Structures are given as structure tokens and as C-alpha cells.
Amino acid sequence: MAFSEFSSVGKKKLGVHVFLIVLDVIALAFAARVNIFQEFYFMADLFPLGLAIATLIILFFTLVLDLAITNVPTARPAFEIGLLYVLSIFWLAFNAFSTARWRNIPLNCNEIPEEYPDERTWCHDVQGLKSIVWIEFVALFFTASFILRYAITQHTRGRKQIWSGPLSRYVPRDLPQRNDFTTRQTFTDYFGARGGSMFEKF
Description:
mainly alpha; transmembrane helix; transmembrane; membrane
């Protein structure tokens, strides 16, 4: 599999997918540090940890499937839009809950006396976690919104085939106009040889 075989739009989408995974790994690292200090006791700390793990698993496997299988359903715009919006809703709900519970933690961690270095480190980790979980939510939401907007734009231009294949291999190209009563469209009209279809193949 060569990376050059993906379309220009697909490369950007895959890059964003990797970026989301990196953000999630950072959130997972902060959440793990916070929970280790608190001995995995508080729900406000456990929610980001559990959601970060679930998100990482989902994003990783959808990326692997997209790279490994030419026309996997999980890489189609409709599925990705729904999945990312669902994840963003979970992040929004859990972030609101956790942020409310963290409100008593000082924003300026230097207010904690120097005699408590571990508590200072924990405070910095919580502030980092508080920031990254909201960044994760925004990234997921805007990624889903961008894919939705792009897919709708292509659909309104008559390129309805965008919904039937992976966005990573989509090429914004109009198909030849045909007489539906004299010429039957086949699978190869949409997934033909490289350079002549709406989606590029391996």
C-alpha cells in the first residue's frame, strides 16, 4: 500500500485522523497521571480516562480499517460523520461534568505551598487535562462538521457517489452524463481504474 494512492482530500482527512489520535493520547496521558495521584477514586477524573481509552480504540481501528480495506463501510462519510458527532457529544457531556467538579482546584498552581511538590504537579496535570479534553471535543466536533459540509457540497454538485465510498479515496470529479434509459451504470462507473473514477483504488 502506497500513501500516494490516496486522493488529495483523503490525505488531508487521514492527517486529521492521526491528529485526533495524538490529541487523544495526550488526554489519556494527563488523565492517567491525575488518576494515579488520586488512586482512581474520583469520577470526575475517571470519566476522561475511560473516554480517552474508548476514543483511542475507536479512532485507531477505524484508521487501520481505512488503510487496509479499499471500500470499508466505516470509512464512508455518513459513518464517520455520525461516529465523530457521537464522540463529540460524549466528550461534551463528560467534560461539563468533570470541569464542574474541578472548579475548586486553583488555576494558579503556584499558590500551593512549595512544601507540597506532588500536589503542585497534580494541580498542573489537572489544568493540562482540563484544557486538552475541551480541545479534543472541539477537534472532534469541527472534524465532523467539516466532513459533513464537504460531503453536502459535493452532493449538491451532483457528485452523489461521495456517500458510497471512503473519503480517503474520493476524487472530486464529475462522471460523464449518460442516458439512464439506454446505458446501465455499473460498479466500474464509480470504482473503475485509477484516475477515471470517483474513488481511487489500491
